[in-house]
């Protein structure tokens, strides 16, 4: 999904993240606490998410607040990630990124040789957030008619519903 935050310069800031889990409460993602997005979220927790399913002609846009997840929940989510992604969380830091390509490949090979099934524990900088929405907009396209959006906005008693042009 696309995660949009407010940049520290006040402008928009967006990138792709893996949607780790969805529940009735919100949408979870995981990242590195040293990342730009983590610093931006510490300053302003307002976010927008965009999830697009082109094969189904569907899109979901979410606006909400990113709430830091408890450490044990982040740890559990780390365990659900593939070995490749668990290695990535350990290896892919700023220092690694600045190495020449050959050295980066060597460092990766060493990490994989040390724990072929991937590290079990997350690095100390591993962290997660749950985006708790206050607005959902579902978009549906169709070949034989107009696209259509349904917007849900959180109210004191539940959710208001509105229908919008695509
Ligand atoms: C398909 C895809 C999935 C990604 N998933 C994640 C993710 O789950 N967590 C993450 O921190 N970065 C993920 N990234 C990398 C981010 O897009 C981004 O480059 C990185 O997190 C640095 O972002 P920042 O500097 O804005 O914090 C993913 C990138 C792609 C293309």
From TrEMBL:
<protein>
    <submittedName>
        <fullName>Pyridoxamine 5'-phosphate oxidase</fullName>
    </submittedName>
</protein>
<feature type="domain" description="Pyridoxine 5'-phosphate oxidase dimerisation C-terminal">
    <location>
        <begin position="126"/>
        <end position="164"/>
    </location>
</feature>
<keyword id="KW-0285">Flavoprotein</keyword>
<dbReference type="GO" id="GO:0010181">
    <property type="term" value="F:FMN binding"/>
</dbReference>
<keyword id="KW-0560">Oxidoreductase</keyword>
<keyword id="KW-0288">FMN</keyword>
<dbReference type="Pfam" id="PF10590">
    <property type="entry name" value="PNP_phzG_C"/>
</dbReference>
<feature type="domain" description="Pyridoxamine 5'-phosphate oxidase N-terminal">
    <location>
        <begin position="1"/>
        <end position="113"/>
    </location>
</feature>
<comment type="similarity">
    <text>Belongs to the pyridoxamine 5'-phosphate oxidase family.</text>
</comment>
<dbReference type="Pfam" id="PF01243">
    <property type="entry name" value="PNPOx_N"/>
</dbReference>
<dbReference type="InterPro" id="IPR019576">
    <property type="entry name" value="Pyridoxamine_oxidase_dimer_C"/>
</dbReference>
<dbReference type="GO" id="GO:0008615">
    <property type="term" value="P:pyridoxine biosynthetic process"/>
</dbReference>
<dbReference type="InterPro" id="IPR012349">
    <property type="entry name" value="Split_barrel_FMN-bd"/>
</dbReference>
<dbReference type="GO" id="GO:0004733">
    <property type="term" value="F:pyridoxamine phosphate oxidase activity"/>
</dbReference>
<dbReference type="InterPro" id="IPR011576">
    <property type="entry name" value="Pyridox_Oxase_N"/>
</dbReference>
<dbReference type="InterPro" id="IPR000659">
    <property type="entry name" value="Pyridox_Oxase"/>
</dbReference>
